[in-house]
Amino acid sequence: DYEAAVAVLEKAMGRLEIRGDSPELAEGLSQIARLHRQRNAYDRSIPVYEQALAVNRRLENMPGMADDYGGMGLAYKDMGEYDAAIDHLEKAREIAVALDHRELVARFTQNIGLVYWQMDRLDEALTCYQAALGIAESINHLRGMSICLSTIGILPVSYTQLTLPTSDLVKISVVDGSIK
Questions:
Q1: H/E element, 177
Q2: Which of 2, 3, 52, 136 would be a feasible disulfide site paired with 141, CB 3.0-4.6 Å?
Q3: How confident is the model at residue 169 (pLDDT cuts 50, 70, 90)?
Q4: How far is Cα 88 from Cα 68, in angstroms, rounded to an integer?
Q5: Residue 153, C-beta contacts closer than 8 angstroms, at least 6 positions apart
Q6: What are the angstrom distances between the C-alpha of 119 and each of 16, 19, 71?
Q7: What's the start-to-end Cα distance of the chain, in Å?
Q8: Could you write out the three-class secondary structure of 131-175?
Q9: Distinct helix (H) and strand (E) counts, the chain
């Protein structure tokens, strides 16, 4: 049960807070924030992400900071606050670039593309997914490639047919299991 899980995690976090900043405290806070976000409790999720981010900043934990910014970005996306979503996802991506963590760069780029898609800004969405696809291909990240290709494939058909090179349309068809 959601509330029981949150209560257990918050009790554990209370014990960790007494000891001061630690990677465990930051990760625990991030887990609580993710749990709230998964349950669409954004009013609870965002403040906990901000707490986790503050701990990760003090610890200079760049991967944790990227995760927290990314989580907040997704929460803002789900709330329809697209400018805040892009801002937070861009910060997450900047950290991933600084860490040279290309898988995360691709994931955050995909998420930014998703926000643009929800804003009906298909040019920017397609650009993000194509960039993320290039990164995923460069590191042979099959899941990332699949996500990008399938998302590109479900953009409005008239839009993709007018703007995608034929080679990308063939890749998308192959993912579908057929060549058209």
A1: none
A2: 136
A3: very low
A4: 9
A5: 160, 172, 175, 176
A6: 40, 43, 19
A7: 47
A8: HHHHHHHHCCCHHHHHHHHHHHHHCCHHHHHHHCCHHHHHHHHHH
A9: 10, 0
Q: How far apart are CA 42 and CA 40, in angstroms?
A: 6
Which run of H or E residues covers position 61? none
Between 8-17, 78-87, 105-114, 135-144, the lowest mean confidence (pLDDT) is in 8-17
In degrees, rounded to 5, the angle at the alpha carbon of residue 96 between the alpha carbons of residues 172 and 94 is 100
Residue identified by tokens 């981010």 is: 53
Decide: 128 and 112 in contact? Cβ < 8 Å.
Answer: yes
Q: How far is residue 70 from each of residues 15, 49, 86, 91, 104, measured CA to CA in Å?
A: 26, 10, 10, 8, 10
Query: pLDDT tens, 72-90?
Result: 999 999 999 999 999 999 9
**Spatial distance between the Cα atoms of 70 and 73, rounded to a whole number of angstroms:** 5
Q: How far is CA 65 from CA 26, 58, 60, in A?
A: 9, 10, 8
pTM for the whole thing?
A: 0.81
